[in-house]
Amino acid sequence: MGAVITVVGLGSGDPDKLTLGSLKRLQDAEERYVRTKEHPVVQWLEETGVAFTSFDDVYEASDDFPSVYEEITRRLISLAGSAPDGREILYAVPGHPMVAEATVKLLKERCPEAGIPLEIIGGESFLDAAFIALGFDPIEGFQLLDASSLTGADVDSRRHTLIGQVYDVFTASDVKLSLMESYPDDYPIIVGHALGVQGAEQVLHVPLYELDRVEGYGNLSLVYVPASSDDQLRIRSFERLHEIVAILRSPGGCPWDREQTHQSLRKNLIEEAYEVLETIDEDDPDHMREELGDLLLQVMLHAQMEEESGMFTAYDVIQTLNEKLLYRHPHVFGDKSAKDAEAALGNWEAMKAEEKRRKGIDPEQLSVLSGVPRDLPALMKAYKLQKKAAKVGFDWDSMDGIWAKIEEEISEFRAAVETGLDAQEQTLELGDLLFSVVNAARRIGADPEEALSMTNAKFVRRFSYVEEQLQGAGKRPEDATLKEMDILWDQAKELERAAKEYKNR
Fold first, then answer.
1. pTM
2. How distant, in Å, are the alpha carbons of 106, 107, 117, 121, 454 from that of 86?
């Protein structure tokens, strides 16, 4: 069976706060180990004749803390496994063994697998000392975070926040940068060194930007961010956005927002999506940030309406999306692989089909054209319909067939117009012509919606040039002849061509 591993907490650093029970176990143990001797209680114990073997050499030989903790755990289990049955391997750790102690967490996982009994004896944690020295009650709302893995998203400004494992100025600098994602540079922060250790305790108040200029960081250091009710500190959080939208829709909120329905906002959703596309075409990141926010607002408003009816919330929307992304990317989050984008898309489609089967829908029984949204812009919808049909072989063998089809549709459209067919027939023939042109776009790998958008933008640029030149001559477009405008149009084309040649030099 091997030996028993007993973990004892050494407390926050003051020998006077070591319990009698823990002291007795430490004194009576035959084989003692300590994670690090860099702790005041260890120094005091050794002065009283209680000696330890430390794992400080592991810190010196390892490149990162996870490797240190893995190696210490491995050594302890090896020692216990090779020791006589019933022997106690005492392992001492700073603070409380169950508070921010990675090696104890690993021992709890590994000892049962190795058949080694594990006993844990508590001790005063640095939290006990922090509650007293910093003067706050954790029941008001409290979070404990690890400096080594801290991100700005982890911090909730409404809660008292303690950040442990701030070993040095480099870690303090990382903490500072993470906090600056939510807090102003001059926000008041508190640094605690050796809290609860008589004669060594320091409580330092500094602005956030000076956090990595503080001296004295070590194993007994932490950072404290007091709780705040200032909602401005949460302005980057999704939770605050959710609250704001709920307030706007509440009885005391905005009359316009309260009156909206899914149907009344339908056009807004489409318009905001197109405004985002415009910022993409213009390569304008600042404007894009704003327009993406407007689009997100539409999503939040629709979700809020459903939350009010009890159907789902914005968080349900996020959950569904996260689950879908995880499931449809087995090559990232599962055991499948994808060597390129085409393979990744294949995995996506396969998992999408499996989702349908789980819902009782047989993908094989669905129409080839299913899944194309009804209300897509017509040009985009034609493109998607043709792509789906082409996947099952309903496609031209070469561009020759497409050219012939376009010419045929031009002839039929011309005949419909010249012979005076009614407006509906002419419109249908025009639709056939556009549909055949979409086929050509798909064949050369071009998105027809994007192609037409580019042409629209080009038309706007050139016509704007015509207007500017006419205005300079004291005219408006309606006052000019077609010939005058054609000349200016050609000038605009020539200027664009020259600019393009200059850029490509």
1. 0.70
2. 22, 18, 9, 18, 80
